[in-house]
Specification:
The chain has 69 residues and is α+β, with helices and mostly antiparallel strands. The protein has one domain (2-68): Alpha-Beta Plaits. It is built from 2 helices and 4 strands; from the N terminus they run E-H-E-E-H-E. It has a 4-stranded antiparallel beta sheet with strand order 2-3-1-4, covered by helices on one side. Strand 2 and strand 3 form a beta hairpin. The two termini are 18 Å apart. It holds the Pfam family HMA.
Length: 69
Amino acid sequence: MKSITLHVTGMTCGGCVKSVTRVLEELNGVEKAVVTLDDGKAVITFDESAVSIPQLIETIEDAGFDATE
């Protein structure tokens, strides 16, 4: 398992945090996602053989937020 921290912008409330957490944890290969509103970060533990970093970023963007490494 690998862990990465992505910077997420556009979140304004706890509902946003829940949305980002949910879409990430629904991805095949993601073991855990910890998303925080205060610092705008998502710490994701994932299996590199099942999901890539660009896929993680695209998933967050598809949910309506911006994400960068």
